[in-house]
Amino acid sequence: MALSVFDRAVADSPSPKRHWSQTPVFFWVLALIILSAIGWFDYVTGYDLHVFAFYFIPAWMIGWHVGFRSGAYMALIAAGTWFLADYKSGHPYSSPAISGWNALMEFIACLVVATIASVVRTQLRAQEKLNAEIFETMAQIKRLEGLLPICASCKQIRNERGEWEVMEKYISAHSQAQFSHSVCPACARRFYPQYLDEPK
Description:
Layout: H1 2-12, H2 24-45, H3 56-65, H4 68-88, H5 96-143, E1 157-158, E2 164-165, H6 167-173, H7 185-191
Antiparallel strand pairs: 1-2
């Protein structure tokens, strides 16, 4: 449930135009290059040298920068690359099922890494959005602090541009307040006595 709240917070935030080095395509290409290098190194060094933890790197990268679903796909590709490198290196197994089991464990491990990266990144983005909203609210409150130059006669307020504005307009522009006009009893007796009920 908590994750869905973070996801909504991120989804509601505007998506600024990103540089090409911040696009999903860039991270996919980079992750595949890194994965190919890891697979080649794993194959060349043979099955005696274990480098299975390095397969977590592309899974983490995609989960962090692209998202959970893409991270799951990368985890599957990473596990398949590990299986291919292990098979091509001539690793002997007493049963083919052991090789499949090891590949499954590699996939699950990469999937866990991608999931953690995606969740942490989503929470950080949501926290950044909440912090921005808090700072904006504090800025609005701060704008109403201090001395306000107000006319003693008509009650208009002089804004930062030196122009005089109606009080309602000024406060609405510098806060979240909205006005609903009515007439107090004293003004009603002064200006609209004809509309008041006659005393019995």
